[in-house]
Write a structure and sequence with these properties.
nine-stranded mixed sheet, 21 helices, about 50% helix, about 10% strand, elongated, disordered N terminus
């Protein structure tokens, strides 16, 4: 009997929720702060109206309808009038539009103008008005969420993504970048460039491969970087090499979110352990690992080092764009993620509502690009190439092109940077023991670079440890056929 009673209760709307979201309940506001802002604008139109417009942006942030009306009129008069603004001109303008009595008449304006002794705290008052506006917007979003959850018109994943997106919009509604006059900003830009030239700041996150960083200037905020290759060439290994270098650089490294749709968390952890210790993963299974003191020390030290890394692995298979954005936003909010890695794009899903695979891949690609811009972090996404790349008759002819990106040209359009990993697979298979130790040649082909040059970077691939190492550096003049290309 108790179980039946509990089940019945769970299907009923929570009466507390109905009370919380009741339309009769007044929403949060600070009318004193609203009045103080308006009083400052009346008392000292210049510069208070400018400050209020910059801080509040629109009349919608005011809770009281009379306050909204007065704010809008003050802003309009300030923009239109060549003469000064005072109580008389404001009252006259409102009267001609039959709005004066609605807000409380001239007595309301007189009381308002005399309600503050100083305008020195205007920015603080604007902050209070803005914060209570955010709270009301959150209430509206939550009310919408409750309503849509009771009558869903789309999949649960898409609904959650829509709700999270609206909450994200509310959070950053008042953090738009300010518009700057070049005359005032040029000195600041010059100082920043001096810091870049003197290596005091980084333009992008270094990948750990100097020649590659020379071309793309690191992984830059807001950019979508595509790393593409055919299967079994090593794109996951290279992504883990970059992840390892970024996560382990410095005392704490950089926080990274790694979304693996193909490998398990254990597989990724073993790969990273092999990279850090430089002990082949196969050594643990084929009996070649000997419990030598040196090897055990290297292994335990590698474990200790990796424990310090701020690397967060999500091994969810078949991840949708909505799920990716939700998880990435949460990790970014909790851990200040600086890099997102996705392995790999074609394994992701949209969640329904598309007519073709090409359209699905296009939506996935645009969703990843939007994630990079929203979080203002670089997103390194892996992608597969189609079989056309293998039809070349020579290694040079078989080099990948943008047209080889599998299933959609949208990936090429959305990406800021496209890098192809290319090597001769048979060379690794037939490599001698010496070559296995010294590594085999591979190429990183920067085929698209929206903000820089394209070119080819040579690296050495070590199959035993799945490690990519930078080859000896060469000047870009050694490859004139690629160095002058631009995206």
């Amino acid at each position: 009997m108790p179980e039946k009673s509990q089940a019945k209760t769970e299907t009923q709307p929570d009466s507390r929720l109905s009370g919380i979201l009741s339309e009769d309940r007044p929403q949060p506001s600070n009318l004193k702060a609203e009045r103080a802002v308006l009083a400052s604008m009346l008392a000292e139109p210049d510069p208070c109206i400018d400050i209020a417009i910059e801080q509040l942006k629109s009349a919608d942030v005011f809770y009281d309808p009379a306050h909204r009306t007065l704010f809008k009129k003050l802003c309009d008069l300030y923009q239109e009038s060549s003469s000064g603004i005072d109580l008389i001109t404001v009252a006259d303008a409102l009267s001609r539009e039959n709005k004066l009595e609605r807000i409380g008449g001239e007595m309301f304006l007189m009381d308002l103008q005399n309600s503050v002794a100083t305008t020195a705290n205007l920015e603080a008052w604007c902050g209070l008005v803005r914060e209570f506006s955010v709270l009301r917007n959150m209430i509206n979003v939550c009310s919408m969420a409750v309503d849509k959850c009771y009558s869903p018109e789309k999949s649960v994943a898409d609904l959650i993504d829509e709700i999270e997106g609206r909450i994200y919009d509310v959070r950053y509604k008042h953090t738009d970048p300010e518009i700057l006059d070049l005359k005032e900003h040029i000195n600041h830009v010059f100082k920043e460039l001096q810091k870049v030239l003197s290596k005091e700041v980084e333009v992008g996150i270094p990948t750990g491969y100097p020649d590659l960083d020379h071309l793309i200037v690191g992984l830059k905020k807001g950019e979508m970087v595509v790393l593409a290759a055919r299967p079994s060439i090593g794109k996951t290994a290279l992504a883990l090499n970059i992840t390892h270098k970024v996560a382990m650089k410095g005392e704490k490294g950089r926080p990274i979110a790694f979304f693996s749709l193909e490998m398990t968390a254990d597989q990724i952890a073993r790969r990273l352990l092999s990279l850090e210790s430089e002990i082949p993963e196969s050594a643990f299974y084929d009996g070649s690992f000997k419990s030598k003191k040196m090897d055990i020390t290297k292994l335990t030290q590698a474990v200790s080092n990796l424990k310090k890394a701020n690397l967060f692995i999500d091994p969810t298979g078949g991840l949708t764009v909505a799920e990716l954005r939700a998880k990435a936003r949460r990790l970014h909010a909790q851990h200040k993620i600086e890099l997102v890695v996705i392995d790999y794009l074609q394994l992701m899903k949209v969640g329904g509502g598309v007519d073709s695979r090409q359209q699905e891949v296009a939506e996935i690609s645009s969703g990843i690009k939007k994630l990079a811009k929203d979080l203002n972090v670089p997103v390194l996404v892996l992608a597969q190439l189609n079989r056309e790349v293998e039809k070349g008759t020579s290694p040079k002819a078989a080099r990948p092109k943008l047209s080889h990106l599998r299933e959609s040209g949208a990936i090429e359009q959305d990406a800021d940077i496209v890098i192809f990993l290319h090597r001769d697979r048979s060379e690794t298979r037939d490599a001698s023991k010496e070559a296995q130790i010294n590594g085999v040649k591979a190429e990183l082909i920067v085929e698209k670079n929206r903000n820089g040059r394209t070119g080819i970077v040579e690296v050495m691939f070590h199959p035993m440890t799945m490690k990519f190492k930078a080859a000896s550096r060469y000047g870009m003049e050694d490859r004139p056929e690629r160095a002058d290309n631009t995206a």
